[in-house]
Automatic annotation (TrEMBL), chain A:
SUPFAM superfamilies: SirA-like. It comes from the Archaea. Gene3D superfamilies: TusA-like domain. It comes from Natronorubrum sulfidifaciens JCM 14089. It holds the Pfam family TusA. Belongs to the sulfur carrier protein TusA family. This is SirA-like domain-containing protein. Residues 11-35 form the UPF0033 domain. InterPro entries: TusA-like (IPR001455), TusA-like_sf (IPR036868).
UniProtKB/TrEMBL annotation, chain B:
InterPro entries: DsrE2-like (IPR032836), DsrEFH-like (IPR027396). It comes from Natronorubrum sulfidifaciens JCM 14089. This is Peroxiredoxin family protein. Pfam families: DrsE_2. It comes from the Archaea.
Length: 81, 193
């Protein structure tokens, strides 16, 4: 699944719960360049809705995909600006 | 955009001075419109944190750090018992109240016994740890790192006889209700916790 995207960096937030996946994602995105894709791996089922809401409400990011498999929630966030 | 193509039928001549005055008025309005559009579309949130129990410390900090992740301008104004959340020592000793808490699996008569609050707090802390939920200290650090303005009400600092040095580095002191009101008036979201 992950091979679909050219992932620049992977952020592992397994074991962390709200609001850490969002806050850590935001911090990781800040350190990337425009065009980069961040892969976020979480065990928090709430991150499916939260990352989506965050990406919609935040300028300069684009949520490419979200994958749920084996109790892992993986998100692909592209920095657009 | 032309302004001179409407000719009133009764009075065909328009006073040059009148036109000039209207032009000036249009310029004035356009300038004030441009000021309003000044690109300041950053969302703002103000939270008033008044509670200092272990469970009530979480909601303001979680919302503040999340809003900051959205790029919002966030102020949390801590007053009365909410001040203890910013107090470096007291923030580590916040207690969950077992009495009058309908979520506690025990009757109030039992919950009122000595040591019950500490026990309930320890149980909650253990759950928080197992769940991977951040500690209060971590959330404070995270909020400050992201530019959240954590404010300590000056009046309450004096009332509780705290010292400005008692608070975490980066906490804003020397602010009162007027400062909070000012930010609330400019905010898109205002919450009292």
């Amino acid at each position: 699944m992950s091979s679909e995207y050219e992932t620049t960096e992977t952020l592992d937030v397994k074991g962390l719960s709200c609001p850490m996946p969002i806050v850590k994602t935001k911090q990781a995105i800040d350190d990337l360049e425009a065009g980069d894709v961040l892969e976020v791996i979480s065990t928090d089922s709430g991150s499916m809705s939260d990352i989506q809401g965050w990406a919609e409400g935040t300028d300069g990011v684009d949520l490419l995909d979200q994958v749920e498999a084996d109790d892992l929630y993986t998100h692909y966030v592209k920095k657009t600006a | 955009m032309s302004t001179d193509n409407t000719t009133p039928s009764a009075d065909a001549t328009i006073d040059a001075a009148e036109v000039q005055a209207l032009r000036e008025r249009v310029d004035e309005l356009e300038a004030s419109l441009a000021e309003l559009d000044d690109g300041d579309d950053q969302q703002k949130m103000t939270i008033i944190a008044t509670q200092g129990s272990f469970d009530m410390a979480y909601p303001p900090l979680i919302l503040a750090s999340t809003a900051a992740a959205f790029g919002w301008d966030v102020v949390v104004f801590h007053t009365f018992w909410g001040l203890d959340i910013l107090h470096e020592e007291k923030s580590k000793e916040l207690k969950l109240s077992a009495v009058g808490n309908p979520s506690m699996p025990m009757p109030n008569a039992l919950a009122a016994l000595p040591g019950m609050d500490s026990m309930a707090t320890k149980m909650m802390q253990k759950k928080i740890d197992e769940n991977g939920t951040a500690t209060i200290e971590e959330l404070i650090d995270l909020s400050l790192d992201q530019g959240v303005d954590l404010q300590a009400c000056q009046m309450t600092i004096e009332l509780m006889e705290y010292d400005e040095d008692d608070f975490y580095d980066g906490v804003t002191t020397g602010v009162g209700a007027a400062t909070a009101i000012q930010h609330m008036a400019e905010s898109d979201v205002q919450l009292l916790v």
